[in-house]
Q: What sequence folds into this?
């Protein structure tokens, strides 16, 4: 099923969907498998699997550190794709790859899209590829029926939102605030207005990420977006309390 | 819309969406400044009154005699205020910041030269300033950290990644992504996303314009070969740009570190260890592994210790217009000692790479050939490293005494 239909279907039963994010291979590949299992069991609707990159310029300290550790412990792109393939085969929710453009570029953009399709993944979120630079990437994704999730931000003009949305599939990832991942986001009228603007221009379901941390945040997003994205917070909990409590945390968000 | 510029297959602007409007604004300000003759005039004016432009061209008579080959001339970027060519770019971007109405500047630094230059510019123009510097570089370039802090800059020691120049760049990008409303990122070299390679090269072209005029005046003819060290590529682009249309051989000298095959170097274009990649916002040759993860690099010169290289230089390598060589740490220290002894010039460790390569070639050249070396900076800042490498006994004694004075 295409991502957009999956999301629309899901919204018949839930008032907002949850997408969680993990860094593959952190703290280990075995742990990544257990985290995925735990998250799916706790009712996560979509998962974003980050292939670590050594220069993650759009990420904050927690994900930077996790990426670095994963690479130091020997995470390769091949191994990450294998794990993602295992996840897609084992669980009945959509899985997406998240990374930076050098990862598919070095692998071969076309070959990368093919490998994602072969692994049963649904699409990808690439943090540093504006559409102006993305023609090869977008063509490869289309060829292999992979959905490119595009990002928009509070600094994106309405005209540009339309432009970006014209290349997007599945949903639009709305970055909730300026800055990098990790810091909290204030739930303000400004955020609400921004999401209204996204809604008007995008024509696709909206996911909101960067700094979403608890039930109050998610309640705020209900009716304003289709998907709430939990990133740094679950890594934090895993680091401080372990994998089991990540499941408790996710169940507490509903 | 972004209109990313390419040089052959290199360059572009691979930036997160949050920064796109900031880049659009910067490109617009830069294009307007380029089209406005009064901007360049103001730039030259400030560099001649606040710094020492035009910097002199020195005939290195003793070195010329010593090698017995080509006549050696040195372009003296070490005589800029704050001691390196970095001052040019920084004052230029400072003027742009004023035009854009921003009030805060951030910068990455390796050797600390660019950080000191940015902190100086910020003090002069009244901007707030934060400088990101890898933890390893903070340790090897303490005197520069001291001056940046005196100048009012907030120096942030970066502990992520390899803790050197590239990591400081990442951290500056992250700051910019949060604070772009009042902040400009003063990138220190001719790398990064468009417009930085073009913009920094434009500001540094003042070196080449002067050098060409000066060598014509002094020697009555064009140089045979021009040598510049290459970190990100700004001083090289600066001096080369004076000679692109001339029959002059241009040689970029990279950090050979411990030599080819050692894995401990920062040569992207001379040794064939790099591959094309996309990182830090642009496409060029990077020292990276098969997966696209960046490798650790090494150089005795912090300012050359970098994974990528100017996309303009990458394209000039592929077209054959610029030849690339590398000088090893040991060759560089030898060249530095010789230059100090013979000419009383103290090149920065970075600049000494250009001297080292020129010295390899000078004896094989004809007496009426002319060599032009860009001395991108002065070596005073490197006193701890140089004294260390030379194991200078008097210096070691001095440091021990200082340590005792401080109760260590
Ligand atoms: C004196 C000096 N020369 C050269 C460089 C290398 O930079 P670029 O290649 O941009 O000239 C640096 C960088 O810090 C420097 O301080």
A:
């Amino acid at each position: 099923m295409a991502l957009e239909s999956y999301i629309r279907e899901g919204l018949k039963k839930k008032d907002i969907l949850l997408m969680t994010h993990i860094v593959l291979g952190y703290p280990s590949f075995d742990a990544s498998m257990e985290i995925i299992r735990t998250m799916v069991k706790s009712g996560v609707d979509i998962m974003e699997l980050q292939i670590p990159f050594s220069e993650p310029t759009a990420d904050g300290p927690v994900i930077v550190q996790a990426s670095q550790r994963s690479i130091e412990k020997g995470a390769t792109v091949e191994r990450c794709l294998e794990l993602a393939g295992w996840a897609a085969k084992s669980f009945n929710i959509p899985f997406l790859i998240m990374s930076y453009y050098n990862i598919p570029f070095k692998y071969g953009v076309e070959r990368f899209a093919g490998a994602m399709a072969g692994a049963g993944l649904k699409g990808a979120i690439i943090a540093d590829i504006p559409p102006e630079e993305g023609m090869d990437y977008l063509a490869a994704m289309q060829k292999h029926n992979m959905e490119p999730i595009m990002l928009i931000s509070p600094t994106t003009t309405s005209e540009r939102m339309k432009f970006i949305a014209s290349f997007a599939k599945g949903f639009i990832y709305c970055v909730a605030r300026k800055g990098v991942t990790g810091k909290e986001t204030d739930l303000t009228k400004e955020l609400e207005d921004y999401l209204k603007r996204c809604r008007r221009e995008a024509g696709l379901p909206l996911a909101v990420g960067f700094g979403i941390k608890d039930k109050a945040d998610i309640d705020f997003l209900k009716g304003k977006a289709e998907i709430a994205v939990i990133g740094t917070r679950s890594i934090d909990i895993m680091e401080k309390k372990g994998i089991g409590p990540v499941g408790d945390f996710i169940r507490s968000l509903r | 819309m972004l209109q990313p510029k390419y040089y052959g297959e290199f360059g572009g602007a691979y930036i997160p969406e949050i920064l796109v409007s900031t880049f659009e604004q910067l490109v617009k300000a830069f294009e307007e400044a380029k089209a406005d003759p009064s901007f360049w005039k103001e730039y030259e004016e400030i560099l001649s009154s606040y710094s020492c432009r035009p910097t002199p061209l020195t005939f290195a008579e003793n070195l010329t005699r010593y090698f017995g080959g080509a006549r050696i001339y040195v372009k003296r970027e070490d005589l800029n205020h704050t001691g390196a060519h970095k001052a040019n770019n920084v004052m230029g971007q400072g003027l742009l910041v004023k035009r854009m109405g921003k009030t805060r500047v951030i910068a990455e630094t390796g050797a600390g030269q660019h950080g000191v230059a940015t902190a100086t510019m910020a003090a002069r123009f009244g901007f707030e300033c934060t400088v990101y510097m890898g933890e390893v570089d903070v340790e090897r370039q303490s005197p520069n950290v001291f001056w940046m802090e005196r100048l009012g800059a907030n120096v942030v020691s970066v502990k992520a990644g390899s803790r050197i120049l590239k990591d400081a760049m990442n951290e500056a990008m992250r700051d910019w992504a949060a604070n772009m409303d009042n902040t400009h990122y003063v990138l220190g070299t001719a790398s990064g996303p468009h417009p930085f390679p073009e913009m920094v090269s434009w500001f540094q072209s003042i070196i080449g314009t002067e050098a060409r005029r000066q060598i014509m005046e002094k020697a009555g003819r064009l140089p045979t070969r021009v040598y510049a060290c290459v970190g990100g590529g700004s001083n090289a682009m600066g001096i080369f740009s004076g000679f692109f249309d001339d029959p002059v051989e241009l040689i970029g000298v990279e950090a050979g570190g411990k030599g080819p095959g050692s894995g401990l170097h920062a040569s992207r274009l001379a040794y064939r260890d790099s591959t094309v990649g996309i990182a830090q916002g642009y496409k060029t040759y990077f020292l990276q592994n098969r997966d696209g993860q960046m490798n650790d690099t090494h150089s005795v010169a912090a300012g050359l210790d970098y994974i990528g290289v100017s996309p303009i230089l990458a394209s000039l390598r592929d077209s054959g217009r610029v030849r690339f060589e590398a000088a090893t740490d040991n060759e560089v220290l030898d060249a530095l000692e010789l230059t100090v002894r013979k000419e009383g010039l103290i090149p920065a460790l970075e600049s000494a790479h250009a001297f080292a390569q020129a010295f390899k070639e000078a004896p094989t050249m004809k007496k009426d050939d002319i060599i032009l070396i860009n001395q991108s900076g002065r070596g005073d800042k490197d006193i701890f490293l140089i004294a260390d490498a030379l194991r200078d006994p008097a210096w070691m004694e001095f440091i021990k005494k200082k340590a005792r004075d401080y109760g260590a």
Remarks:
- Chain A has one domain: 3-249.
- The mean pLDDT of chain A is 97.
